[in-house]
Amino acid sequence: MSRNKKIILTMAICITVLIFSEIIILRESTPKEVLKVLHAGSLSVPFEEIERLFEKQRPYVDVQRESMGSVKAVRQITDIGKKVDVLAVADYTLIPDMMYTEYADWYIQFARNDVVLVYNQEKSRYADEVDSTNWYDILRRKDVTFGFSNPNLDPCGYRAVMILQLAELYYNDSKIFDDLILANTAITVNEKNGVYLIKTPEDLAPNTTKVVIRSKSVELIALIEEGGLDYAFEYRSVAVQHNLKFVSLPEKINLSKLKYSDFYGKVHLEKADGKVCIAKPVIYGITVPKNAPNPDLALEFVKLVISKEGRTILESYGQPPLIPAIGSGNIPEKLRRSVEAPTAIKSDATAYSSDTIYSPALTQYKGDGASQTIHKTLWPVKYTLGQKTFRGFSRHILPSTLTNLGMPPKILKFPIKRGDEN
């Protein structure tokens, strides 16, 4: 090779390296799109994995996550004015109850969970004795400490307190709540007509020699691992993710089964802000707030969470996904094919507390001389109520609309069978 050719080749290589270097520098200096995700602490581990997958699929995106108790997370948006793109909470009803309709007008139920009692096999007192038949007696022992998250800030906290009241009914022991909660906190309870109303004041005043309360349940994990706390109420998924030993509580009190909804519903809890929640199965919810800075990208993140890939990640971390995910409210067009109506997950459902229900409605209802058309279509459905068969299309409707048609919201208890458009 001649000297000139070598010079030209060397220059070409240098120019190529320089160009690629500039491209790399340009890429690194170009600011990424930021996606802010605010979520329940119990979602931290699976959402970290979903974040990695989302950023891998979209290298131009920087997902910034923040975790806290779900009630506190909602208040960050509604009270403080924090702007986030995605909100995921451990109790889906917080979205319609606290955010409708100024801050959100839809949500998706996407995962289940249940509450367990975690402990440290080597460091927790009486770890070799505790089981599903005696755990409450173990907690009663004077030298045993236990913890739960703040009921005013975190669903796991108010669920833990409600479970202790349910335990009284299940084990036929009228002193469980008294001995563990009333004797050690400022929390109160009153019973009327078989319904128990628990009240959690702003100052819970825990007896810290017996009870430890933190703002979110996952903050108790370190105490369990270090031996600074004997037992704590946590979600099963959190226990699995942290390789902790745990007592599985009976299904009739662990808030896991739809068939026990009526039994769970005997216990209500009024938080310090005056809002009342009713014990019910643990179901997570996700939404994109109305003031999200990056709503289109946020919908893509939600779509990933409820996709097959997202469900696989949730399942791998002990978080059973809802298949399919259940959409309520004004579901964005981009997500409608990925969700089902509320009735899809249960045949014994109670009416939802939100103003709007994403549910099957009739294009026409005829009965007792009445006839009214409800239009706007999403997909064809048909189902039977008594002797009548209804055909129509799913749509966003108000419960009052059904009532006005002589069809109270309780008809949502009936399973839907997809049909033709006739």
Describe the structure.
With 422 residues, the protein is an alpha/beta fold. It has 4 domains: 1-30; 31-113 and 284-340, Periplasmic binding protein-like II (D-Maltodextrin-Binding Protein, domain 2), CATH 3.40.190; 115-278, D-Maltodextrin-Binding Protein, domain 2; 352-422, no CATH class. Helix content is 30%, strand content 27%. It has 13 helices and 21 strands. It has helices spanning 3-29, 44-57, 70-78, 94-99, 135-140, 155-171, 176-182, 221-226, 236-241, 261-264, 295-305, 308-316, 399-404, and strands spanning 33-40, 61-68, 86-89, 106-112, 115-119, 146-149, 188-192, 195-199, 211-214, 231-235, 245-248, 267-270, 276-278, 283-287, 321-329, 339-340, 357-362, 364-367, 370-373, 380-385, 388-397. Helix 2 (44-57) runs antiparallel to helix 12 and helix 6 packs antiparallel against helix 7. The relative contact order is 0.14. Residues 344-422 have low confidence and may be disordered.
Rg, rounded, reads 26 Å
Q: CATH superfamily assignment of the largest domain?
A: Periplasmic binding protein-like II
The neighbouring-strand order within the major sheet is 2-1-3-14-4-15-16
* Total E-strand runs: 21
